[in-house]
Design a protein that fits this description.
Length: about 80
């Protein structure tokens, strides 16, 4: 476990955090942690590339066409060119 010290110098922000924590039945550190986790999740969803080739860990959809030479003659099957 790591310790993280957060100093809030904005009195209104600190008061708002305390109010939200109280309404949620949590203490201020728990609420701050939830807020940071939510921020990181939103940040990642906005800034992650949507191109599946940019994220090699993403599972790409695939189907079995039953065509054994598809890789070799893909132009023929996709565009109708001569093999």
């Amino acid at each position: 476990m790591y310790q993280f010290t957060l100093q809030i110098t904005d009195i209104q922000l600190e008061q708002s955090l305390r109010e939200v924590a109280q309404k949620e039945g949590k203490n201020v550190p728990e609420m701050a942690l939830l807020a940071i986790q939510e921020f990181i999740q939103q940040y990642r969803s906005i800034n992650e590339p949507t191109d599946p080739w940019a994220n090699p860990n993403m599972a790409l959809p695939s189907i079995d066409t039953g065509i054994t030479d598809f890789a070799r003659h893909h132009d023929h099957y996709l565009y109708g060119t001569e093999t």
